[in-house]
Write a structure and sequence with these properties.
With 353 residues, the protein is of the alpha/beta class. It folds into 3 domains: 93 residues, MurE/MurF, N-terminal domain (Udp-n-acetylmuramoylalanyl-d-glutamate--2,6- Diaminopimelate Ligase, Chain: A, domain 1, 3-Layer(aba) Sandwich); 213 residues, UDP N-Acetylglucosamine Acyltransferase, domain 1 (3 Solenoid); 29 residues. 20% of the residues lie in helices and 28% in strands. The chain is built from 5 helices and 40 strands. The strands form 6 sheets. It has a 12-stranded mixed β-sheet with strand order 8-11-14-17-20-25-28-31-34-37-39-40, covered by helices on one side. Strand 39 and strand 40 form a beta hairpin. The longest helix is centred in the C-terminal third of the chain and has 28 residues.
């Protein structure tokens, strides 16, 4: 599949600087460019590669002005990252046609309802009362529990498990090994041990959510665990029972959200962030890697880090001071010795008087 620079520019609404007839047939990172490849540039630290790369076409910001000659054809667009995402989506759609049909090795309950153009791969199980929306794809070994509702144009990759009665919205993507609606971690201790608290609620995933591989989102004890529309979840994320994740929030790898906590809209929890139970995190909160959120974050738009997590700038200053503690401790001990010596000398003088 080959496209001219002028075709790409027209599709993206960009402007060309260079040869509009040059053709590309693949994608490459700008630092690994080859002839016939399309790359993109958005971060000034990669500018040297613009002048070195062998890529034939480069997407650049609208206001980019090269400081030296460029061999490649440049296409100026408002947001190169968004532009490359659009092109990759178009390429994927063209090269991975959507499959339809029900494999004879799938197990579909008689009372399940499947929409139009559904794909059901070998060894998929769809239990009684489940509803699968139009255009949804269920890949091999996926299990859909009783009375589950899945919307239109979803993709569930191999070995996804949706427990009974859970709800998945439209255009959701669930990657391999993810489990939706397993029991929340609820046990009541007494003198004889731990007694399981039945988890009779459900998990609700709203529209346009993408969930990475091997994630676990527990069902509620009562009511709903809710993942709001547009949320993006990385691999290996755990979300506890009755939690609520606000719309368009991003959870990166190994994040853990304890039960009954509520995250606001457009939050970003970076790698290995932990949120304790029954907390509220305000909209637009950004938590740096390995932050431990132990108390509610009430003020929107903060960037926090550390454990317990607090303002990132203050935490950075505290970390710098922490590195100096051994020297400060040595100095303190020296000062204590000097003070003790001075006290002794003063006491001796006082006695002699």
């Amino acid at each position: 599949m080959e496209f001219k620079a002028q075709q790409i520019a027209a599709y993206l609404g960009g402007t060309i600087e260079g040869n509009p007839e040059v053709c590309v047939n693949t994608f490459a990172k700008i630092e690994e460019g080859t002839e016939g490849a399309l790359s993109f540039y958005y971060d000034p630290k990669f500018e040297p590669y613009i002048y070195q790369t062998l890529s034939s076409v480069i997407l650049v910001p609208t206001n980019f002005q090269p400081s030296q000659p460029v061999k490649a054809t440049l296409i100026h667009v408002e947001d190169p990252r968004m532009a490359i995402a659009r092109l990759l989506a178009m390429y994927e759609e063209a090269t991975k046609p959507k499959r339809t049909g029900i494999d004879p090795l799938a197990s579909i309950a008689p009372t399940a309802k499947l929409g139009k153009d559904v794909y059901v791969a070998p060894f998929v199980v769809v239990e009684d009362g489940a509803v699968i929306g139009d255009g949804t794809q269920l890949h091999a070994h996926t299990t859909i529990g009783a009375n589950v509702k899945i919307g239109q144009n979803c993709v569930l990759y191999p070995n996804v498990t949706i427990y009974h009665s859970c709800v998945i919205g439209d255009r959701c993507v669930l990657h391999a090994g993810t489990v939706i609606g397993a029991d929340g971690f609820g046990f009541q201790p007494d003198k004889d041990g731990y007694h399981k608290i039945p988890q009779i609620g459900i998990t609700v995933i709203e529209d346009d959510v993408e969930i990475g591989a091997n994630c676990c989102i527990d069902r509620a004890m009562m009511g709903e665990t809710i993942i709001r529309r547009g949320v993006k979840i990385d691999n290996l994320v755990q979300i506890g029972h009755n939690a609520e994740i606000g719309s368009h929030t991003v959870l990166c790898g190994q994040v853990g959200i304890a039960g009954s906590s509520k995250l606001g809209e457009w939050c970003v929890m970076t790698g290995q962030v932990g949120v304790a139970d029954h907390l509220t995190v305000a909209d637009h909160t950004v938590a740096a890697a390995q932050a431990g959120i132990a108390t509610s974050i009430r003020k929107p738009g903060q960037t926090i880090m550390g454990y317990p997590a607090y303002d990132a700038k203050q935490c950075s200053r505290a970390n710098i001071a922490f590195k100096s503690l051994p020297d400060m401790l040595f100095q303190l001990r020296q000062l204590q010795k000097e003070v003790s010596t001075l006290k002794a000398e003063l006491a001796a003088k006082t006695q002699n008087q």
